[in-house]
C-alpha cells in the first residue's frame, strides 16, 4: 500500500531548506514531486559533507529524496511555457521565492490558474506580501531574531541568539506541508484550487506565542509575555553526581511520585508546591528543590528509580549517540541505502506511522537534471522539442 | 467562505500542549473540535495569569480556541459508552495520552474502529510503539535531551541547556497535524480510516538531522556530525553602533551582495570565502568579518542601506516588541475577541493565508463543560438521560453558563 498522497503531483520551484523540506514531507507521503532546478542547481547542493560529487552534499541529500530533478533555466523564455505545460497535469505548485521574483518570471498564481483552474499554489517567504516587510529577503537567522526566538535565548540562556538549528525554516516547512494538505482536502470536497501564502515571520510568532503570549493574551494585559517556567534560567538539565539528566517534576502526578520516592515527602506539604499552578508560580523554587535532590546520586541511580513510573526523565544524547540509540535502532529509524553515484547513504525515516498507507523512501536524492528528459517526455514534448531545449541550454541532463 | 476542514468533526482527548495545539490548528482550519475533558478539566487550565476563574488561565486560552468542551468521566463505564457514542459520528480522534492508558480504557484503535471503521485515529507519543522505550513518559524537557537538542545547546552555551520554548511538543504537534490531514485526504479518496502514530523522538531527530547529520549522511562517514554554520560561537546577532541586527551573509547570493554593499572587494577576492563550501570551512572567519563590519554603523544606517534589497537582515524583536511590530500590525496579525466571561482576549492569527478557504476565529476557548449538554444532545442522548449523567457525575456542565445571571 503506497502513502496517503499517492497520485498527487507537485511542482517544486524551491531551494535551500524551507520549500525543499516541505516538498520532501509531501513526497514521503507518496506524492510525486518534480523538482525544477536552475542549470546551476539548488544552492544547497554544495552545502555539507560530500562523499563523491561536490553537488551532492549532505544538506541537499537531507531535503530532496523521493523527488525527480528537472533542469529549467527560468531566465529563458522557452522555460516558462514548459513549467505551465507541466502545471496542466499537476495538483500543487510550491515555491519559496520572494513574490516579486515569481511575478517577474510570469509564474504567479494567476498564470498557473489560467492553465489549470484547480491548481493549488503555495508560496512561502519571509513576510506576508501585504505588509511593510513584504519585499524583504529572509533566512532562518533573520526570522528567529524577528520572531522572538533570539530574545527567548537571551532571557533563559544569557545570549540573545538563534537556536542552533534552522528552526524557522523547518517549522515553516511543516506549516507549508499542512497548508497544502488542507487545500487538497478542500479541493477534494469542492473541486476548487487556491492561492496560499505561508509567511515565515507570522508562522514563527504564532509558534512562539503558543505558550509565551501568557498575560498578554488578555486586553489589557494581565502581565508581560513569556511563560515564566520556561524562561527561568534555572530550567536546565540537572546535574547528578556524574553527569546530567533532563527531568520535569512539576506536573501532576509526577511531583508526588518524585517527592515520595526520593524521600522528600516534606515537600508535598509545602504550600509553595501544593498544586501544579503553585509550582508554576514558584518555578524557580521547584527547580531548585529538584536540583538539590538530583545532585546526591548518579545518573544511573535516578534512571533506575523512575524506570517503572511515568515521571519524564532521560539522559542527554549527543549527536553521535543518536546514530547508535537502541530505540532508534529497534524501530528501524536509520535507513541506509545505496545511492547510484554517492555510495551508501544514511537517511532518517519519515516520523509519521500510518497503519494503512505507510510512507516510504522510493527514490534516492536526484543528481542535477537526472530526470529532465524523462519528465519532459511525459509532459508530451517531442524528442525534437527536447533536443532544442537541451541545445539552447533551457534544460540539461548529465550524460 | 469557511476553512478547508469545514464539516469535519474532531474528537480531542488531549491535555497540556501537544494534542490541544494540534486540534486548535485543525479547529482554525474550520473543523468542529469537541474537547473531551475529565471532571477536573485539562491540566493546563490553571496555568498562567487568569481573570474570572482559576481554570481559565492564559495558557489554556491560547491553546483551545474554536473548540467546544464536553466533560466525560472516562473512569466510569457510562463515560466510556458515551465517549464511543461521540466517536461514532466523528471523522477524526486525536489523543496524546500514553497508548497503554488508552488500551486500558478500551479506547485503543482496534476498540474504537469497531464503532467507526472510517475514523482517522491519530496520536502523538514519546517514542515509537515498536521500540524498547514505548512505555516511557515524555514531556518537552526530556525529549529535548533525548533528541540531541540539549547537546547542541551545550556547544553554543558551554553547558547543556534547554531551548526556552516547548519545541518538541509544538513541532510534533505540527507533524501530527500533517498526519491527520494526509490520512483525511486518503480517506476522501478511498473511504478508508486508519491509525496514525507520531512519535516525538523520531520527529525531532528527523528535524535536527536535516543539517546536523552532516558527515554521518554517508557510510562510511565523511567527517563529523554537526553543522558548523549554526554551531559557531559567532552565529549570533551582530552588534551595531547602537543595537543589534541579525544578518546571515554566508549564503549565495547574500555574500556577494553584502561585500559589494559594504565596499569590501577584498573579501570577495579572499580565497577563504571564494565559494559556499569554503565559507562553511571558514565559518568563524565569515562571522568575525561580518561582525567587524556591522559594528561600524548604527542600526538605522544599516536599515537604510539594506532596505529594498534581498539582504536577509532584521532587528532583534523582544517578545514585547512583537505586540507593536509595524509589519504584524499592518497585516492584522493580532486578533482580538470578546470572551463572555474573560473579557477581551488577544491572539496571534493563523499563519496560513488561504485565498479560497480562510481560517477564522469563530469562538474563544470554552469554559469547562460549557457545551456538555449541547454535545450529548447532538450525540442522541435525551434530556432525561443527560440529567441522569449530570447527577451521577459522568458529565458536568459549567455553572456559569447555566446561571447566566451570575455572568458579567
Notes on the structure:
The complex is a heterodimer of chains A (399) and B (408). With 399 residues, chain A is α/β, with parallel strands linked by helices. Chain A contains 18 helices and 13 strands. Chain A has helices at residues 18-28, 58-63, 77-88, 99-104, 109-115, 140-146, 149-157, 167-190, 200-212, 228-231, 254-261, 276-281, 283-294, 299-305, 319-324, 326-330, 372-378, 383-391, and strands at residues 9-13, 32-37, 67-71, 92-95, 120-125, 194-199, 218-219, 238-239, 244-247, 313-314, 334-339, 343-348, 353-354. In chain A, the strands form 3 sheets. Chain A has a 6-stranded parallel β-sheet, sandwiched between helices. Chain A has a 3-stranded antiparallel β-sheet with strand order 8-9-10, covered by helices on one side. A two-stranded antiparallel ribbon of chain A has the order 11-12. In chain A, strand 2, helix 2 and strand 3 (67-71) form a beta-alpha-beta unit. In chain A, helix 1 (18-28) crosses helix 8 (167-190) and helix 8 (167-190) crosses helix 9 (200-212). The longest helix of chain A is centred in the middle third of the chain and has 24 residues, at 167-190. Chain A is elongated and about 85 Å long. The mean pLDDT of chain A is 95. Chain B is α/β, with parallel strands linked by helices and 408 residues long. Helices cover 41% and strands 14% of the residues of chain B. Chain B contains 20 helices and 13 strands. Chain B has helices spanning 18-28, 58-63, 77-88, 99-104, 109-115, 140-146, 149-157, 167-190, 200-212, 228-231, 254-261, 265-269, 276-281, 283-294, 299-306, 319-324, 326-330, 372-378, 383-391, 399-402, and strands at residues 9-13, 32-37, 67-71, 92-95, 120-125, 194-199, 218-219, 238-239, 244-247, 313-315, 334-339, 343-348, 353-354. In chain B, the strands form 3 sheets. Chain B has a 6-stranded parallel β-sheet, sandwiched between helices. In chain B, strand 8 and strand 9 (244-247) form a beta hairpin. At the A-B interface, helix 2, helix 6, helix 7, helix 8 and strand 6 of A face helix 2, helix 6, helix 7, helix 8 and strand 6 of B.
Amino acid at each position: 500500500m503506497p502513502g496517503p498522497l499517492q497520485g498527487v503531483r507537485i511542482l517544486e520551484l524551491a531551494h535551500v531548506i524551507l520549500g525543499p523540506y516541505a516538498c520532501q514531507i509531501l513526497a514521503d507521503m507518496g506524492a510525486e514531486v518534480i523538482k525544477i532546478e536552475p542549470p546551476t542547481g539548488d544552492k544547497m547542493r554544495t552545502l555539507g559533507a560530500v562523499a563523491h560529487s561536490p553537488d551532492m552534499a549532505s544538506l541537499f541529500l537531507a531535503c530532496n529524496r523521493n523527488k525527480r530533478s528537472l533542469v529549467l533555466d527560468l531566465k529563458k523564455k522557452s522555460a516558462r511555457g514548459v513549467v505551465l505545460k507541466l502545471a496542466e497535469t499537476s495538483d500543487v505548485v510550491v515555491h519559496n521565492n520572494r513574490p516579486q521574483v515569481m511575478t517577474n518570471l510570469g509564474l504567479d498564481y494567476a498564470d498557473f490558474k489560467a492553465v489549470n483552474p484547480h491548481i493549488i499554489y503555495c508560496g512561502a517567504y519571509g513576510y506576508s506580501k501585504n505588509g511593510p516587510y513584504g519585499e524583504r529577503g529572509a533566512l532562518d537567522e533573520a526570522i528567529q531574531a524577528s520572531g522572538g526566538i533570539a530574545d527567548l535565548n537571551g532571557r533563559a540562556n544569557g545570549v540573545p541568539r538563534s537556536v542552533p538549528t534552522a528552526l524557522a525554516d523547518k517549522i515553516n516547512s511543516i506549516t507549508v506541508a499542512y497548508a497544502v494538505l488542507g487545500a487538497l482536502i478542500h479541493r477534494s470536497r469542492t473541486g476548487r484550487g487556491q492561492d496560499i501564502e505561508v509567511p515565515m515571520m507570522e508562522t514563527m510568532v504564532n509558534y512562539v506565542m503558543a505558550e509565551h503570549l501568557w498575560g498578554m493574551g488578555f486586553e489589557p494585559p494581565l502581565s508581560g509575555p513569556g511563560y515564566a517556567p520556561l524562561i527561568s534560567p534555572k530550567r536546565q538539565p540537572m546535574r547528578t553526581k556524574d553527569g546530567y539528566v533532563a527531568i520535569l517534576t512539576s506536573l501532576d502526578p509526577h511531583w508526588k511520585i518524585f517527592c515520595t520516592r526520593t524521600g522528600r515527602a516534606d515537600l508535598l506539604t509545602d504550600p509553595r508546591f501544593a498544586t501544579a499552578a503553585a509550582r508554576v508560580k514558584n518555578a524557580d523554587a521547584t527547580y531548585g528543590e529538584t536540583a538539590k535532590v538530583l545532585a546526591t546520586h548518579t545518573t544511573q541511580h535516578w534512571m533506575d528509580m523512575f524506570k517503572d513510573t511515568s515521571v519524564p526523565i532521560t539522559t542527554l544524547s549527543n549527536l553521535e549517540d543518536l546514530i547508535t540509540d537502541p530505540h532508534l535502532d529497534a524501530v528501524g529509524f536509520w535507513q541506509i541505502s545505496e545511492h547510484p553515484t554517492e555510495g551508501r547513504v544514511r537517511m532518517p525515516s519519515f516520523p509519521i506511522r500510518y497503519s494503512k498507507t505507510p510512507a516510504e523512501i522510493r527514490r534516492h536524492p536526484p543528481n542535477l537534471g537526472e530526470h529532465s528528459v524523462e519528465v519532459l517526455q511525459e509532459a508530451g514534448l517531442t524528442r525534437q522539442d527536447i533536443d532544442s531545449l537541451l541545445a539552447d541550454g533551457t534544460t540539461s541532463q548529465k550524460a | 467562505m469557511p476553512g478547508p476542514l469545514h464539516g469535519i468533526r474532531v474528537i480531542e482527548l488531549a491535555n497540556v500542549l501537544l494534542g490541544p495545539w494540534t486540534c486548535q490548528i485543525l479547529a482554525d482550519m474550520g473543523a468542529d473540535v469537541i474537547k473531551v475533558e475529565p471532571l477536573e478539566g485539562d491540566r493546563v487550565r490553571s496555568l498562567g495569569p487568569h481573570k474570572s476563574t482559576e481554570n481559565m488561565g492564559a495558557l489554556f486560552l491560547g491553546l483551545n480556541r474554536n473548540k467546544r468542551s464536553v466533560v466525560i468521566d472516562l473512569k466510569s463505564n457510562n463515560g466510556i459508552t458515551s465517549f464511543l457514542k461521540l466517536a461514532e459520528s466523528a471523522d477524526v480522534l486525536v489523543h496524546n495520552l500514553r497508548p497503554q492508558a488508552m488500551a486500558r480504557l478500551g479506547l485503543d484503535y482496534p476498540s474504537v474502529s469497531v464503532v467507526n471503521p472510517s475514523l482517522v485515529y491519530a496520536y502523538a507519543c514519546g517514542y515509537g510503539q515498536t521500540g524498547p522505550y514505548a512505555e516511557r513518559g515524555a514531556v518537552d524537557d526530556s525529549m529535548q535531551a533525548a533528541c540531541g537538542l540539549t547537546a547542541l545547546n551545550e556547544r553554543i552555551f558551554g553547558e547543556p541547556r534547554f531551548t526556552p520554548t516547548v519545541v518538541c511538543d509544538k513541532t510534533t504537534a505540527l507533524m501530527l497535524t500533517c498526519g491527520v490531514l494526509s490520512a483525511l485526504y486518503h480517506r476522501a479518496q478511498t473511504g478508508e480510516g486508519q491509525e496514525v502514530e507520531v512519535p516525538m523522538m523520531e520527529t525531532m531527530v528527523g528535524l535536527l538531522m536535516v543539517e546536523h547529520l552532516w558527515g554521518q549522511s554517508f557510510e562510511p562517514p565523511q567527517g563529523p556530525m554537526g553543522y558548523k554554520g549554526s554551531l559557531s560561537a559567532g552565529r549570533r546577532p551582530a552588534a551595531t553602533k547602537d543595537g543589534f541586527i541579525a544578518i546571515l551573509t554566508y549564503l549565495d547570493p547574500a555574500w556577494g551582495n553584502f561585500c559589494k554593499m559594504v565596499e569590501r572587494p577584498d573579501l570577495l577576492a579572499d580565497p577563504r570565502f571564494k565559494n559556499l563550501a569554503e565559507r562553511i570551512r571558514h565559518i568563524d572567519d565569515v562571522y568575525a568579518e561580518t561582525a567587524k563590519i556591522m559594528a561600524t554603523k548604527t542600526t538605522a544606517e544599516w536599515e537604510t542601506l539594506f532596505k529594498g534589497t534581498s539582504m536577509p537582515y532584521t532587528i532583534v524583536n523582544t517578545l514585547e516588541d512583537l505586540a507593536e511590530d509595524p509589519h504584524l500590525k499592518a497585516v492584522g496579525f493580532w486578533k482580538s475577541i470578546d470572551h463572555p466571561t474573560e473579557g477581551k482576549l488577544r491572539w496571534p492569527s493563523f499563519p496560513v493565508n488561504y485565498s479560497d478557504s480562510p481560517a477564522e476565529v469563530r469562538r474563544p476557548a470554552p469554559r469547562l463543560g460549557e457545551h456538555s449538554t449541547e454535545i450529548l444532545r447532538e450525540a442522541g442522548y435525551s434530556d432525561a438521560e443527560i440529567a441522569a449523567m449530570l447527577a451521577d457525575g459522568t458529565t458536568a456542565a459549567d455553572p456559569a453558563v447555566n446561571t447566566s445571571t451570575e455572568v458579567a
